[in-house]
Amino acid sequence: MTGPSMPIGLDSRRWQAQPSPVQQPQWQQHRDYQSCCAVLASSPALVTVREIGELRSGLAAVAAGDAQLLQAGDCAESFLEIGQEHINAKLAVLHHLADQLAAGTGQEVLRVGRLGGQFAKPRTAAVEHVAGIPLSVFRGHMVNSQEPSPDARVHDPRRMITAYAASAEVLHQLRADRAARATHAGSGLSAGPWSSHDALVIDYEANLVRSERDTVFLGSTHLPWIGDRTRQPHAFHVQLLSAVANPVACKIGPSITTDDLSALCARLDPDRIPGRLTLIVRLGKKVIAERLPAIVATVRSGGHPVVWLTDPMHGNTLRSGNGMKTRLLADIIDEAGEFRRILHRSGAHPGGLHLEVAAADVTECLGGMVRDIDQLPMRYTTLCDPRLNPDQAAQLLQSWYLGI
Q1: How far apart, in whole angstroms, are the C-alpha atoms of residue 168 and residue 160?
Q2: What integer pLDDT is reported at residue 181 of this predicted model?
Q3: How confident is the model at residue 3 (pLDDT cuts 50, 70, 90)?
Q4: Is 73 left (phi over 0), alpha (psi -120 to 50) or beta?
């Protein structure tokens, strides 16, 4: 945890007054709900204004075409994988991949982990059936448990306190890692590692808004992002992140309209500041060639100097013959390559990649060492969506910088 900062009294219950709030836990009637929100509201920020400023400078370099960004980590963090050994393993993979990307592109690479707060997940359906029993869907360890029982799936606000403590441990280790690596001589770029997560649960995020040195910022992470399901221009998620000094990111899926995209950029980046806004494009290999040119043109016509990032995974999820969710490495490589080519043709800088990558040799995506669907169950350990293993991620990065 960091030095002094002041709560600003933002009431997280404001989200309940918004029209059609989406993807929020149903725990307001829990006996500990108010006290959990109060604990968060009085807790120290997990990041500082200085750190946020360093990250924004790095992102400005990416927006200018002078650096790359690699944002990578678990689909959903686990409370069971918090501790020095687990965090070191995740950081080792992040640094290994970033070093590979730096060597291949000849540019400095900003390292951002899906770490230190990625404990909540938006879901398509509110209910799933396990062995014929309807259960509230698993929404990440901040909300409920993945265990398939009615009691485990109850939304419990006390999990926010556990998420805060777990995030504090991760942020402490990231800070130590940055100090050990120090600023790279000659570039002046603080490459990280920095933290990021989907700023999904309003009760958690709004109660961690702080003020330090007359700057209002989100104290839960360095780089919060808004998901494709919660990016409506007038939604509370957009209102919240438009009010803080952190650099912010937003997922852009195939359903977005040019009007909504223009409004979204205007709200999140009204002053057109390089490094303020990152757009994470997740269209899918089948539609990226059709949709991305207009998206790029809309953003550029609005004068927004954004960081362009590809998420080539979320638009390419499918069910295998055995019913397991998976992704094809070939599809992921195809979408990333098409993203890169379209950005180049548009005169924009393809800033990097946003990936779900495990620290272990999981067998969740097909391709590379995972040759067929019979291998999927061997080491399928994700809490939610299928992740690349480090070897598959390395193959993807190689195709990225070789331009294949």
Answers
A1: 12
A2: 86
A3: very low
A4: left
Residue 304: which of 270, 345, 341 has the closest Cα? 270
279 Cβ contact partners less than 8 Å away, ≥ 6 residues apart: 249, 250, 252, 295, 299, 306, 307, 308, 309
pLDDT of residue 403: 82
Candidates 239, 301, 252; CA nearest to 272 is: 301
Q: Can you name the residues that pair with 210 across neighbouring β-strands?
A: 7, 217
pLDDT on residue 190: 86
Is 403 or 265 the better-scoring residue by pLDDT? 265
Cα 10 from chain centroid (whole Å): 23
Residue located via tokens 């006290």 = 35
Distances (CA, A) of 282 to 251, 318, 327, 347, 383: 7, 15, 14, 20, 20
Condensed to tens digits (0 to 9), the pLDDT of residues 158-201 reads 999 999 999 999 999 999 999 998 755 455 688 999 999 999 99
Tell me which residue of 247, 345, 329 sits closest to 292, measured CA to CA. 345
pLDDT in tens, 343-394: 999 999 999 999 999 999 999 999 999 999 999 999 999 999 999 999 999 9
CA distance 268 to 190: 24
Cβ pair 249, 279 in contact under 8 A: yes
Angstrom distances, CA of residue 370 to CA of 322, 362, 398: 15, 9, 18
Residues 6+ apart with CB under 8 A from 199: 205, 218, 220, 221, 224, 225, 226, 237, 240, 241
Strands 248-252 and 350-356: unpaired
Please give the Cα distance from 385 to 187 (Å, whole number): 36
Tell how strand 194-198 and strand 108-113 pair up. parallel
Which two tokens mark 162?
Answer: 């556990």
The CA-atom distances, in angstroms, between 179 and each of 7, 176, 183, 195, 282 are 27, 5, 8, 15, 33
